[in-house]
Amino acid sequence: MSVSYRGVGWTPWKKRYDQVLLGGVLVYLVAFVVFSILLRPNGTLETTLIRALGTCSFLLLHIILSIGPLSRLDPRFLPLLYNRRHLGVTMFLVGLAHGLFSMVQFHAVGDINPLLSVLTSNGDWGSLAQFPFQVLGLAALTILFLMAATSHDFWLANLTAPMWKALHMGVYVAYSLLVVHVALGVLQMEVDPVLAGVLGLGVVWVFGLHLVAALGERRRDRAVGISSADEEGYVAVCTPLEVPEDRARIFCLAGERVALFRYDGKLSAISNVCQHQNGPLGEGKIVDGCVTCPWHGYQYIPETGASPPPFTEKIPTFRVKVKEGSVWIHPQPNPAGTHVEPAIV
User: Fold this and answer.
1) Most buried residue, 4, 69, 117, 219, by most Cβ within 10 Å?
2) pTM value surpassing 0.90
3) How far apart are the C-alpha atoms of 183 and 239, rounded to whole Å?
4) Coil, strand, or helix at residue 344?
5) C-alpha 101, offset from chain centre
């Protein structure tokens, strides 16, 4: 984290992450070109390089879309999530190289501007066999550009977290466009069941993984029965010892996820949503007396829901009490940053 958006020093972990990422991209491109030349010696190097860049970017996008649900299913994947934006920017740059090489190869020999040629050279929108698939790729690349250009936390702070999150959810629109782009483009020219099978397998993997993660979230989000509410509106959720020390349990109350933390013989409840990137605070832990988000390390004081100075992020808090051996939480959230006296175990 950086208070005034100064450059944050790269840790050895970040360096290793990027070295592995860039090395993997280079190895993939070289291997793709070599195997393509061996299998198709009559193919041109330019076309082979275009395909290598395109498939590499598409593969990286599948990896990016898999990290989120995998982290929801197994916390061991969280280290991949910490620097996912590095992966996203790399994916965009590789995709941009694919797009630029394609424009030079197929649209730079005429008198029309190459970009304009992409948009106007094929107007057969009503034909599935001749559909202008390149326009779909250009649209997807535009969305990915907006995401890469706003990946820095400066934009997250100035666009606000909800707007920033909505913008970056556009990755699913870009992915859908690219699936159709590949299906109509490559598969039209390469009538190969293997290619169609690989593309279909990738789509099934991404959407299947999200479906499994969503079903798991749905099971966890089952609301506590309102029949257990007391006369003050508090809802019984668990016993104190069911909450791990320095960690939390997550409950869905009145449609909102609440993270109940136990620490130093006390219990505090806060919103489960981190103000940075909507990370799941309840899956984090108490570090140095602060709730620490498992995604990017943002911290909040459990009694107040406020980040320690000089940071200014705040999240809603909830009233908690221990009665008759059970923990009770009031489902009505307090304004963000409101101090709430913790319940004593």
Assistant:
1) 69
2) no
3) 53
4) strand
5) 28
- Cβ atoms of residues 337 and 314 within 8 Å: yes
pLDDT at 4: 45
Length of the chain: 345
Cβ proximity of 43 and 36 under 8 Å: yes
Spatial neighbors of 178 by CB under 8 A, at least 6 apart, are 58, 61, 136, 137, 140
With tokens 């779909």, the residue in question is 136
The residues of the chain scoring below 70 in pLDDT are 1-10, 161, 187-188, 190-192, 221-228
The answer to whether the CB of 214 falls within 8 A of the CB of 221 is no
Q: Which residue(s) pair with 328 in the sheet?
A: 236, 321
Strands 299-300 and 290-292: antiparallel
Cα(259)–Cα(238) distance, rounded to whole angstroms? 12
Residue 35 CA from chain centroid, whole number: 32
Alpha helix (H) residue ranges in the chain: 12-39, 45-73, 78-82, 84-107, 114-120, 133-149, 153-159, 161-168, 171-189, 193-220
In 3-state terms, what secondary structure has residue 269?
strand
- pLDDT at position 123 is 77
Is 200 strand, coil or helix? helix
Element (H or E) spanning 292, and its range? strand 290-292
Q: Are 242 and 251 in contact (CB under 8 A)?
A: no
- How is the beta sheet containing 326-329 ordered, strand by strand? 235-238, 326-329, 320-323
Non-local (6+) Cβ contacts of 8 within 8 A are 1, 2
Place of tokens 């599948």: 62
